[in-house]
Design goal:
The protein has 340 residues and is α/β, with parallel strands linked by helices. The protein is built from eleven helices and 15 strands. It has a seven-stranded mixed β-sheet with strand order 2-1-3-4-5-14-13, sandwiched between helices. A four-stranded parallel β-sheet has the order 7-6-8-9, with helices on both faces.
């Protein structure tokens, strides 16, 4: 009798222990949050700096960061990665789109699984995201680059644009506003027409080839490259050819310092990709926690970035804007080239 009682108590104790362990494991698994960043492709320095900031933001929030990119800048590779992530235990996803429309079905499928999707840098389709994290207002960037080009050539000389891919939303928005600046001020820009828009697909070899091709047109006196890959490629081409054609655009100080010092690129613009990645993590946290729904006018706390307001985006969706474009020139490039 005593043996049976002892055995029953022993089995009950074991059952309780197993139940507690199982409950603890289950609770730990359900409460574990993972945020993932999907870049255009992983071998771009801008994307790596963005990821650095994203990881910092995730640590501040208390979630686990993941980085899932391909070594090729194609929408097909992004779609494959998004589909793989759909089956994993991730709470939210930040996507930098290669093609907003092509990504839409895969991202909508992810959203149906309960995974929250936002975009950053290059926006995904407005119906495939909750909100977008913009580095700077597209209108400001586009108009600023045209004004800079006009000033660099003293109002005399054609403009060429060396962009990323034809489908990249962020570059297309900037180019749209570049065209608007030219069209709305015909008298001012009559001596600086837009000659050509070329696409290097954010690949160094193709960007170099496109830059070389642009130099064959004698009307072109300045190249605007709204992509760090294009900036670096064009800078090397202009320097190697000892060309008098000038360069401006959006570049990384660590890569472009030699060209600013030599005068190939009198000045350029950018923002802090580390800060953009960090802000994206905090925006995603606000979405996942249910503090914002992505509606224009909503205000929320973005941690170290203070209170932020969601504003309308030009594509009909909404966005959160980081900052204004920052000018890098010979007066400050030494300070920044080791930081960014």
């Amino acid at each position: 009798m005593k043996t049976k009682i002892f055995l029953s108590l022993f089995l009950a104790a074991v059952f309780c222990i197993v139940s507690l362990v199982s409950s603890g494991c289950s609770k730990g698994k359900s409460s574990r949050k993972v945020f993932v960043f999907v870049p255009k492709c992983e071998n771009i320095l801008y994307m790596k700096l963005f990821q650095e900031g994203f990881e910092q933001g995730c640590r501040e929030i208390g979630v686990e960061p993941l980085y899932r990119g391909s070594d090729v800048c194609t929408v097909e590779s992004q779609i494959a990665i998004v589909r793989q992530l759909a089956a994993q235990n991730v709470a939210g996803m930040v996507v930098d789109a290669n093609d907003p429309d092509a990504l839409r079905p895969a991202l909508n499928s992810v959203s149906k699984r309960g995974i929250k999707v936002i975009s950053a840098d290059s926006a995904v389709h407005k119906d495939a995201r909750i909100v977008h994290v913009q580095a700077a207002e597209c209108e400001t960037v586009g108009r600023t680059l045209i004004r800079a080009a006009h000033e660099m050539v003293n109002g005399e000389g054609g403009i060429a644009i060396l962009s990323a891919t034809p489908q990249t939303t962020i570059q297309n928005e900037w180019i749209y506003w570049m065209r608007r600046e030219l069209e709305e001020n015909p008298v001012k820009y009559r001596g600086t027409p837009l000659i050509k828009v070329a696409y290097g697909d954010d690949e160094p070899i193709k960007s170099t080839s496109e830059a070389l091709a642009l130099l064959k047109d004698q009307r072109i006196k300045i190249i605007i490259s709204p992509t760090t890959i294009g900036m670096l490629a064009a800078g090397k081409v202009l320097q190697d050819k000892q060309s008098q054609v000038k360069l401006t655009g959006l570049g990384l100080p660590s890569e472009m310092a030699p060209f600013i010092k030599s005068g190939v690129c009198p000045w350029m613009y950018l923002w802090n990709p580390i800060a953009q990645g960090r802000l994206s993590a905090h925006v995603l946290a606000a979405v996942v926690d249910g503090r914002i729904s992505g509606t224009a006018g909503e205000k929320f706390s973005a941690g170290p970035f203070g209170e932020r307001t969601i504003v309308p985006a030009t594509d009909g969706g909404t966005e959160v804007v980081l900052d204004e474009p920052f000018r890098f020139d010979s007066s400050n490039i030494d300070e920044w080239q080791t930081k960014l």
